[in-house]
What does this fold into?
Amino acid sequence: MFLLSIFLPLLSYFICVFFFGLIKDKVLSFVSCFLMISSTLFSIISLILLQINGDQSYVLTNWISSGSLNIDWSLNLNLLTASMVIMVNFISSIIHIYSVGYMSKDSRKSIFMGYLGLFTFFMLFLVSSSNLIQLFVGWEGVGLTSYLLIGFWSYKEEANKASLKAFIANRVGDFGLLISLFTIFIVFGTININEILLLVNSHSQSYFNFFGFQVHSITLIVTTMFIGCMGKSAQFGLHVWLPDAMEGPTPVSALIHAATMVTAGVFLLILMSPLIEVSDFGKKLILIVGSITCLFASCVAIFQNDIKRIIAYSTCSQLGYMFMAVGVSAYSVAYFHLLSHAFFKALLFLAAGSVIHSMSDEQNIKKMGGIYNRIPLTYTSMLIGSFALMGLPFLSGYYSKDLILEFIFLSEMSFKFIAFFIGIFGVLLTTIYSSRLLIYVFHGQNRSDEKVFAHIHESPLIMVLPLVILAFFSIFFGMYFYSSFVGPSLEEIWSKFMFVNSETNQIYSLGNIPNIIKKLPLFMIITGLILSFLIYFKFSKSLPVIKQRLHLIITFFYRKCFIDELYQMILIKPCIYLGRGFWKSIDMDLIDNLGPNGISRLVNSFGLMVSKLQSGYLYHYVLSVVIGLTLFISIYIYIF
Amino acid sequence: MISLPILPILIVLPLIGLIFIFLSSEKDENADQSKKSALWTSASNFFLSLYLPINFDKSIPHFQFVNSFSWFNSDSLRFALGVDGLSMPFVILSTFLILACIIFIIPQSKKNMKMYLASFLLLESFLIGTFSAIDLFSFYIFFESILIPMYLIIGFWGGERRIYSAYKFFLYTLLGSVLMLIAIIFLYQEFGTISIPKLLDFTLPFYIQLWLWIAFFSSFAVKIPMWPFHTWLPDAHVEAPTEGSVILAGILLKLGGYGFIRFNLSILPDASIFFTPFIYFLSVVAIIYTSFIALVQEDMKKLIAYSSVAHMGFVTLGIFSANIQGLHGAIIQMISHGIISAALFFSIGSIYNRFKTKQISFFGGLNIKLPKFSVIFLIFTLGSIGLPGTSGFVGEYLTLLAVYSKNTLVAFISTLGVILSASYMLMLYKKVFLGELSKNMDKKNDDVNIYEVSLYTVLIMLIFIIGIKPGIILSYTTSSLERIIQLYPISIF
It folds into this structure.
């Protein structure tokens, strides 16, 4: 069952790609949707069977065996992987269905469906793999499919640039992860996840010789692994690829760049949580980077005009929240937010896709407006998604995000207050950018072309239905599953699969949190709503004036804090310069001139020199004979 | 137990094909008759060579299928052939790639086609001889003879600057080989034997090992090639015809790696330990330096050539880490690079046959013109990047893991190569295949033909099979490599 739920998407890929052009697109789309849905059903069944049969691992075959290194292709089935598999399969099937509508006019839509299937397979493979190298296969595989899907419209130069950027930024992260994997193998002697987690305690004090320094081995592992997670989950520094990745088709943004792939970094950290617990430095680093990302991304989001980019930066900042939760050891809460975020962020993206679809491919929110009554269903789902994202009470985001904030407050980290305030401030910013988006897109005056405006229509049923399903989950997921991630039943459910901080959990369950802390996020949301209502609605006429006054700050954030430009200057240009330098001056000038060309020149000039001696005059030859003879005789006499 | 003299047959068979080619009286550029005989010869040679893995005993670390003949009527000088787990994969790789080249040649027409085919068959015979020779003299003779057909292929059927490149290639390789010849003569004088298995039993004094090591190193370092002896490679690749590049990158470079394991590591272990930091340094420089150069190349073949140097850097790192993961990794990396770089050069050949240029700036949006081909090329690109699941990953992972256990700094810097290789290969892919259709390409062009499709399908399958189940190669090599490692003193680096 479990194997089927993982390999059916791969089958879908092969069918779609090999029969592209041979079978009608409609049939292929149907087949791939059908396979995805059955895969989802199988994964739900395997979760039910899990209750009966207990944890299992499926060994498929041996992969690499070299000396003490022994790697199998094998899959783990336990609660953590099964729940993640269900989430991925579920969101993926919804997005498959949505794509049938969204891509209906594209000539290569079967290929697109195939790529989606391939992505799903790699993601499932990543999630369920039983060893870290195999996880790395999935890790790189999702990076590859993300590359393919961002650049799906390969005639768009921007899309190609974005896909390249995504792959390389991810590779930088993978570099860190690889170093981490090497260290893990050398420290633990195994790369099987279960075995590593068993061995953590016996290696908690071991040191590792790194560049000649004695480094706490697990801190090294966690730090380098976190670099990998930063790349995949678009944390500050390696986040540059995520906003650009929005060049891809919208279903891709929803599936890969919101719900599943970008959360792989958080998932990996949750999976390896007992390891992270050992390293204090690692936890601090994760908390710091998470907070910076959270703050930075939500600040930038306020100043963007592209509807998808705003949501992308929002994803970035939500991932920051998840990392903050990991940093304060609240892994189950991070996982909870990961799952609920998947629903409402996928909803937001799909709704945005629906807006773009109805606006004839317009993405600039400044060119929309006043369309809420033209596309009521899209509007409603966007509203639900945004409210869930802000964390309005009783929607999914309310439970998961508030939990993160409360656990930060309860933690014993040295700078928890700063992190807590960043988190609270982030809520305010989230509210502002979400409501700005809603106001610009749906309310106020219409600013689009008349032609476009006349053409606005609600999307077809096949695109609206996924919105409804996701909206349902965005509302009720948090409420229903809240109690399984925190409180009394937490340890019973999760302690086998991740580190559970029972002390904090106990404090939480007893309700020892000041009421003001509990109410602070809500207060922030209300402030944010009022503020944005005032700024973007009531006093929208005075906006240009404000903009002029704050010109510098706005440009700074509008240009994403100039990080792209900075990288261009300090990384890319020097690399190109270095490459040219190495090639022209060392390879072609130094080595070639000293090497083969030099030798041939030497031989040449020596030949010329010698040939000058052959002058043809008899007295030259006689002279040389006499000199030679004299030399020869004198040496002979000298020796004997 | 084995009666069939398989190795002599493998060496002689291409020569018989050669006679057939010379017997045909065709003069035209197509030379269908000769193509047929070349195809039959190389195909039968390939299938015959599969006899080796089928009858190979994996548990024996020593040479198998041994045939030895007396040479100069002397007992100490015997002409001996045999394969062990180390050399067997390379014999198969040689027969396979030659067959692939011949298949690729079939739809083409070239000046003096008969001679062209003949050079490849000659090359095949010499290559198998080099990999299966187990005495120093015949190794040396085969090793050097390879230069002759290769020199002809570059110098006669090459591009504009072919003469310069061919000379550069010849000069570099010959210079190294002269020192190796001196070392071989010295070994014979000292120990009275040229048999490699016998030499394994001797322990040489350290200072002699040093000199011998340098002599062997100079020959193999040029072949593999290591920085800074690599400058012949880009030139040779750019000027060589497609099939020449394939053999050059696919097999000839592997002679260097094979030689390092067979001679430097096995016979001269103490010196190898002494020189390990030196090798590490050169390899790291090769990986980073050539990757940077590859970033700015304007010619596709040159880019792949520079990337080959970087990939071979991983091989040398793996070899001189001298543990089982390193050697396994080095062998997988060599085989995988043999397949992937061959595939890339074939692909560039396909492009060249259609557009008559290899300049990157000429192209753009090729995936609109050749959709199937662009997918094929993407798979090869990903293999070259070392995406997990392809054969490239296994090699890189194992070698880096091996180095990491010896020296973290070296491994750390070399792992940066992983980022760089992704950058230059994907940038190449983007510039050539993606974007808007370049104006240069308004001519009508057919997508891949049946020869190309079948060839590329096999190559793609090999890349994935080795990537998913590298055990099919590694299991043959394990016992031979373990023997080498057992003889190897424990290193301090």
